[in-house]
Amino acid sequence: MRHVFVWDIYVRVFHWGLVGAVIMAFYTMETSGAPFLFPIEVHAKAGYTVLGLLAFRWLWGLVGSHYARFHTFLAGPSGSLGYAKATIQRSATSYAGHNPLGGWMVVVMLLSLTFQAVSGLFLSDDIFFQGPLHGLFGGDVSKALFSWHRFNSNLLVVLIGLHLVAIVAHRLMGEKLVKGMVTGVKTLSHPPVDYPASGEVKIRWGWALVAIFVGIAVTLTFWLG
């Protein structure tokens, strides 16, 4: 058994911050929103928070630490299909970060969440809330985006459900994904194929500050706008 440092502090804060913001967004739209007086405003601010977090994650996926970068965990069609086949045959290689299938699931969820947060900027309930970009492209576009916003929210429920199923499945196979996302360290029984050549996960502090600044700037722009 070996302990491998996988998720840097920024990925972990992003992950749990996103969990909290998404839960708040769903809660304020799918329930009465108690105890909030104007749940739609809380929903909007949760969405702005999601948008800021996603702005950070997209940038960190390009310039972040080894396991955070997209090129580390995105495989081509043949590689992904090969991993799926090996998983069925229970002969899949060990990954410290996202495996090929998990990596594509992450990207799909990020894209879905990004669409949800961005489309919300164009919406209005004609009573209490009007998005900061409502009417920018006309009422017809806003109405179409409202329909897609609702449809995508249902898609997100499915994607989140699949994510939770994957967590349980990996736990049954001995891989504690939740613990890894809390501590940043994963315990592996075999050497991972995605281990960095340098032998360590380096955090690029300068780029981290840039990504954090971008994420905060995006959130505050809409929070205070």
TrEMBL record:
Residue intervals passing through the bilayer: 9-29, 101-123, 155-173, 205-224
Pfam family of the protein (one): Ni_hydr_CYTB
Membrane topology, as annotated: Multi-pass membrane protein
Recorded superkingdom: Bacteria
Matching InterPro entries: Cyt_b561_bac/Ni-Hgenase, Di-haem_cyt_TM, Hydrogenase_cytochrome
Alphabetically ordered keywords of this record: Cell membrane, Membrane, Transmembrane, Transmembrane helix
Location(s) in or outside the cell: Cell membrane
Entry-linked Gene3D superfamilies: Transmembrane di-heme cytochromes, Chain C
Domain annotation Cytochrome b561 bacterial/Ni-hydrogenase: ranges: 6-184
Protein name as it appears in the record: Cytochrome b/b6 domain-containing protein
